[in-house]
């Protein structure tokens, strides 16, 4: 990861985005995470029952992702794929362009997982990551290690803010956006437009998009 090394060397305090220093943003994250975790605990019961009936195994899935300035953390989700799906990734065609992986009708997704993804319920455990401070309610999509290993230097600019449960591209297209460079541009636009008020507007817009099940697979 030579690019990671170069970025780390050049990453200093002056690169910090204002959102990472905002006490109001962090307060909203904490309050939102607490409310979200209460909802997650309630939802976890039926999710666990249905998952166990269709695919007896753990209901949670975790993966190492890259967060603020490339710092790694363990991200949590409700499991929507078969166990050891990461080991089968090479068998699935990547239908996205650039350093991101997306596939319509990914065969690794379980029948329960399809419902969880369409409704975004699989994302609920990430409220724990928000409470810990590894993520924010609003930010960038947290990339995987293999995605980051291929980053060019300008791609690292998207990681100047915390990864978010939602963000610019999630609220304005979700999985229908398959070009990585478009996602990078949207992440940079978010940084330029950022304010607490703008975060709240994206949260409201995301709730509406999720309820309509727009652009999810």
List the helices and strands and how they pair.
Layout: H1 2-10, H2 23-54, E1 60-66, E2 72-78, H3 111-118, H4 126-132, E3 136-138, H5 145-148, E4 164-166, H6 168-171, H7 180-193, H8 196-212
Parallel strand pairs: 3-4
Antiparallel strand pairs: 1-2
Helix pairs in contact: 2-4
Looking at this protein, list some descriptive labels.
217 residues; mainly alpha; two-stranded antiparallel sheet; two-stranded parallel ribbon; 44% helix; globular
Relative strand content: 5-15%
SSE pattern: HHEEHHEHEHHH
Structure summary, number of beta strands:
4
- Count the domains: 1
Helix/sheet category: mainly alpha
- Give the N-terminus to C-terminus distance in angstroms: 31 Å
Q: What strand order characterises the main sheet?
A: 1-2
Oligomer: single chain
Helix content: 40-55%
Largest sheet: 2 strands, antiparallel
- How many helices? The count is 8
Mean pLDDT: 88
| Residue windows where pLDDT falls under 50 for at least 5 positions | 1-14
What is the CA-atom radius of gyration, in angstroms?
A: 17 Å
State the shape.
globular
Describe the structure.
Residues 1-14 have low confidence and may be disordered. The strands form two sheets. The protein has a two-stranded antiparallel sheet with strand order 1-2. 44% of the residues lie in helices and 9% in strands. It has one domain (19-212). The longest helix has 32 residues, at 23-54. The protein is built from eight helices and four strands. It has 217 residues and is mainly alpha-helical. The chain has helices at residues 2-10, 23-54, 111-118, 126-132, 145-148, 168-171, 180-193, 196-212; strands at residues 60-66, 72-78, 136-138, 164-166.
